[in-house]
Every structure is written in C-alpha cells, then in structure tokens.
Amino acid sequence: MDKMNLNTKERLTTVDQDQKKFFLDYLNQVGFFNLEELHPLYKQSSPEQIDDIRLKVIMMAGIGKNLSLEGDFIEAKRIFDSALELAESKPEVVNGDFIAFIYYELCLFFRMVSDLPSSKRYAILARQYAKTTNLRLLINYQFATFKAESEINLKIDKLNYYSYEFHKLKMHYMEALVMTRLGIIYEGKKDWKNADSYFRKGLKIAKEKNIYHVENMINNSIGYTYANKGEYDKALDVLNTALENVKSFYNRTLMLENIGYVYYRKLDYKLASEKYLEAYNYAKAHNVISQLPEECFFLGDCYEQMGNVQQALMYYKLGYDHAFYQVAEGFGLNGFRKKAMTTYLTYLERMNYRKFDGKSMENPFEFSLGKEWREIRDIFQYHLIMHHKNKAYSRETFLSGLKMKSSTYYTLQNKLKKQGYKIPGIKEPNKPIPEDVAIETLNLYIRNNLEHLSWEDANKRFEKDIFLYLYRQYGFQKNRLGSALNLSQPIIRAKTGAIVYAYDQGLNR
Q1: Which of helix, strand or coil describes residue 72?
Q2: How far apart are CA 111 and CA 389, in angstroms?
C-alpha cells in the first residue's frame, strides 16, 4: 500500500467519537478530490468488523459508491440498501451529517442509474439533515444541476458559482465535474462551441490535479460530442488514445461503446456491431451490468439494419433479459432498461404482423385498449368462429377444422349471444360479420396466424400475442394491467410470466 493509502487507513482506524465530523469532512474531500485513493481501502474493508455504527454505515456507503463507479449497480444497490436500513434503524445514533451523507450518496447513485425521481427524493432528505458546510454545498449543487438540466433557457450563473466555491475549498474533483456537467448540458442542446469550451476547462483541471477518473469521463464526453457532430476521425482519435490508459472497468466500457457509436453514426453497422460486442463481452466479464441493456439494444439494431433478423432478435431478447433482471432488483423502468424492453416487444410484434399477401399489417390489438379481458376474449372468439364458419363448406368441415365438439359450439353460441354477438346456428347459412362489429385488422390477424390451428391452440396463441401487446401498452406494470383487464394479480403474474419466453423461437413459426 502506498503512503497516501496508508495515511487514509490510519485516519479511518484511529478516528474517535470527537473526530467524527472531521472524519466525515475529510472523507468527502478525499472522495471528491482523488477518488482513486479510496478504492483499495474500500475493497479491503470489512464493515461487519466495525463496532461504531456511524463509521460502519459510512464505510458501507463508500463501498457502494466505489461499486457504482465501476458499473456494478446491482451490488452497489444491495450495500446501499443495507447501509440505509441499518442507519434508519438507529436514528438516535446515525443522525445529522451521518445520515445526510448516506442520503447524498444515494442521490448520486440513483442519478447514475437514470432514476431522477429517486435521486431528487434523496437529495431532499440529505438537505434536511446535513450540518457540515461542505456537505451542504455538495447537496445544494445537485439541486442546481437538477434545475439547470430542466430549464429550456439555460442559466449557468448558479453552476459557475459552485465551480468558484469548489475551487476555493480545493475540491478540484467537484470543480472539474461542474465543468463536465455544463459541457454535457450544452452538448445536449447541440451548442458545440460551449460544450467544447467547458469540456476543455474540466479536462485542464483534471490533468493538472491528476484526477484520472474525471479525465476519462471528459474524454468520453468529447469523443461522443465529436461523433454527434459528424467529426468521426476526431472522435476515434480521442477515444482510442484515452482507451490506452483507462483503468476503471466502467469508463473503459463506456469508451468501447462510444467507439462502436462512432461507426454506428457512420452507418458502418458491421464494424459497429463488432465494437459493441467487444464492449458487451468486456462489461459482462467485469460485471459492469449497468451497460448491458444499452449494448444489446445497439447490437440488435445493428443486426436489424444489416437484415439479420435472427441475430437482431437474439440481442434484443438479451437486452430485455438484462433490463428485466435489473427492474426485478429494484431499479426503475427508465433509460435504456425501458428502451431495451420496449424494443424487444415491439420487434416481436413487427415480426408477428409483418407483410402478408402484399398487405401491410397494422396492429390488430388496438381494439383491446380500454376493455376488460372478458370482453376482449369474447370479441376474439366471435371473430374466430365467424371466420371459420364462413369459409367452411359444411358443418363437418367447420367442426373438424377447429377440432371442436358440437356441444362446445352450442355453449359458445349461447355465451356470445348473451354478450350481443349473434352467430348462426351450426346448420344455418353463413352470414358476414356486421360492418359495425367487424374489426378488419383482427380478421387479418386470424387469417394469417391462426388459420390452421385448433380452437384450443388458436386461443392460446391469441392470448400470448395480446398479452405481449398489452403488457407493453400498460408500461410493464402488472397492477395497471390487472386493473385495466379486471383480472386478479395471480392471474396477471401467470399471464405475463411466460409471454416473452414463449417467443424464443418467434421467427420460426
């Protein structure tokens, strides 16, 4: 261990009750000035061996921060959750700056995972408890960035004020981050001149103070900005040069992604897919799970653009799986998690309803929105029976085509009649569906997807297809879906639990 890390460890292990506030302030400044100093310490620490609860929860929050900066958001969230649970269970001990520090780190964490509502909620809690000047400054800066990013007409005076304050306090890590944040904001507004100016200011600070983590962040942002400007050679030069020295698994993953993004912007989908695959394999190997849905989305899109539908489906499905796992672990359905899940389900729909007989297939399930499940099923079964009834030459061919008993038909006829859907008797002449009742897209779906299926199999296929559609329409929220369809949660869980995996071979049908 080098001299600086030894000094840090000594401070942490010798701190007594009267030094807690000084320690917290030191931890903030070290963490933001030179984060690399704390990496080895946190990785070697054993919070369970620390008796002082306040010191223990702060150490746990520090480990969570380090894990998140490496992209391991699942483990980071687990230790943050444990730290928060322990801290909030002892409010008489963990209070003031100590609980504020944990809330502040949670604010930063949820901002990293694109969960802005949670980030703001923890920022509010942190501000309520913080006492130390430096900690309050850090928290208030977060509120300033929330405001700056939400304004249409950007006002930077407040952010420049924080840059000045961080400079006075020699919190150079934060000073460089302010410049980076301003550059990102301007880049989002396509104000390339100001974006470049602030990135260069931040990069100058990071290089002078040897803050490698921020230096890598800024080089990533500069390369990404060049890509969006169409200056691809400059983008590749910046990213490939920076890649040679980057140590953080997270930053290296982002750089590999951005190199892929450059080729994606150039419409070189083959080379883009190779670079995104390199990023994906690296992220998986080093547990940078935060980036997996995004990488799979771009891999799927690249293969779709190249016309390889099977490979596209495979990577869209992988993206869905990674996103679904993260949502199940308590992360919000937002950012590339939502995009990965939505893209996969939309792609399946497009594959299911692609062109038939020269006709472009519109989505056949729009009729279901706003209706309860019983009504949706009755409409479908009415159209399915009428389709087969009208194309059958005789009673026997109709029943045999659906593999249906005549008793089943009469039961269905009576049930549908009560709901206002009149179907002819089994021996009566065929009649077309009335124009005010017919749903042409549903008829087309039946004709092109269920034509040769039995009654039972056709109903199963329809159920899978429509729940795939409805699950996405209701935002992947089972409570909303159950309420809309008037179905119990156990039924909803059963229906949604298998719908995606039923389509692993979706393109082979």
Answers
A1: coil
A2: 58
